[in-house]
Design brief:
Layout: H1 3-31, H2 35-45, E1 54-62, H3 69-73, E2 77-84, E3 87-96, H4 105-123, E4 137-143, H5 165-168, E5 177-180, H6 197-205, H7 209-222, H8 229-243, H9 245-248, H10 259-329, H11 339-347, H12 350-361, H13 366-369
Parallel strand pairs: 3-4, 4-5
Antiparallel strand pairs: 1-2, 2-3
Length: 372
């Protein structure tokens, strides 16, 4: 293969992780393209008093015509229109899925705000409020990064305080809200009933299959009925991405969200059984190994003990043999021991040997013993 072809092959491999990440991003974007999902997000996670007066029956996604190329390329940024006490307000919703925090997010949002207002002004009276005034715009960011969001939530915080306050007061300002998924205190939202977004956040933060099964079952329970078919379908795609089901369970086709808990439970059962089997096998192997080690150790100890005993016995035999030899050479005793008698004396107990020696020596006068 040529060097050029090698370069192409390597570049393709490097792009694969990004393709997977983009697929994940697109699946999350599709979920939040549903008005019901956005309604759940706002009602559950935007703690503002005016939210209760929003009319979500008139909740629509808006296409802004006059935008920069930069804004057109940002597919994850969505603009919604909703009625507040029969008057429209606009919501800028940003999906921020990068691992890094955008310090200048306020600049990006004030740019969007200006473009939206320009478009509304060009639309004329039908887009503005009845008195010709501009409708409010609320901006919020759905942040999915691992690091805690630390960027300033107002544009004013990005200015340098060394300038005079009288000058800074003429600078534009905007404030936005962040929903930081990994920093949300989930216990605070435990009371949310039939909220579609909370289980998604719980699933993102779940580290156990057993917990994921319960969370997905919760989603299934609150998304029953024909009107949720499209949402269920998009959530299934999202669940496949976030849990990497197709990679972990190759050859298994999942067509409905309701199939996921059963499949995961079966996988958990197989995994637990494998662990038990591995545990039994490991226990047997450890038992055998321990038995071998104990046997070897016991053999060593027995060998050492036996060696000590043999050494002591050999020392006794040598000492006795020397004594017997000396006595046999003595002219005073004139001993004549057979080989069998000598062996008996060598193997005799200490008590028996000493008794024999006393009997033998008692036959010799005391003054003559020294000469032996």
């Amino acid at each position: 293969m040529s060097k050029k072809n090698n370069t192409k092959a390597k570049s393709k491999i490097k792009r694969n992780p990004n393709k997977l990440h983009h697929a994940y991003d697109r699946s999350l974007k599709r979920i939040f393209s549903h008005p019901l999902m956005m309604e759940s997000l706002i009602k559950g996670f935007v703690p503002q008093g005016w939210v209760k007066d929003l009319d979500f029956t008139k909740f629509t996604k808006i296409n802004i015509k006059h935008v920069t190329a930069d804004l057109r390329e940002r597919e994850d940024d969505v603009i919604w229109r909703v009625d507040f006490k029969n008057q429209p307000i606009y919501l800028i919703f940003l999906l921020e899925l990068q691992s890094t925090v955008n310090k200048y997010m306020a600049v990006r949002l004030i740019t969007y705000t200006g473009l939206i207002y320009e478009d509304l002004i060009k639309e004329g009276k039908k887009a503005l409020l009845k008195d010709g005034s501009l409708p409010p715009i609320f901006s919020f960011v759905y942040y999915h990064g691992e690091k805690t969001w630390t960027a300033p939530l107002t544009l004013r915080e990005l200015y340098n305080d060394s300038f005079p306050k009288r000058l800074l007061k003429f600078q534009p300002n905007i404030e936005y809200m962040v929903i930081d998924l990994n920093s949300l205190p989930l216990e605070k939202y435990a009371g949310l009933q039939n909220n579609f977004v909370l289980p998604l956040i719980e699933l993102e933060r779940s580290s156990k299959y057993s917990d994921s099964v319960k969370i997905i079952q919760k989603l299934i329970n609150i998304l029953r009925g024909g009107k949720f078919d499209r949402i269920r379908s998009d959530i299934l795609v999202y669940v496949k991405r976030v849990m990497r089901l197709e990679a972990r369970f190759p050859g298994i086709n999942i067509h409905d969200l309701e199939e996921v808990p059963g499949m995961l439970s079966a996988a958990l059962d197989r995994y637990d059984q494998n662990l038990r089997d591995e545990g039994v096998q490991q226990g047997i192997q450890q038992g055998v190994q321990q038995g071998i080690q104990q046997g070897v150790q016991q053999g060593i100890q027995q060998g050492v003990q036996q060696g000590i005993q043999q050494g002591v016995q050999q020392g006794i035999h040598q000492e006795r043999l020397a004594t017997i030899k000396t006595l046999c050479q003595s002219k005073k005793l004139a001993l004549n021991l057979s080989q069998e008698q000598t062996i008996q004396l060598l193997n005799a107990s200490t008590e028996q040997f000493n008794k024999w020696m006393i009997t033998l020596l008692s036959q010799i006068p005391t003054e003559e013993i020294v000469e032996i």
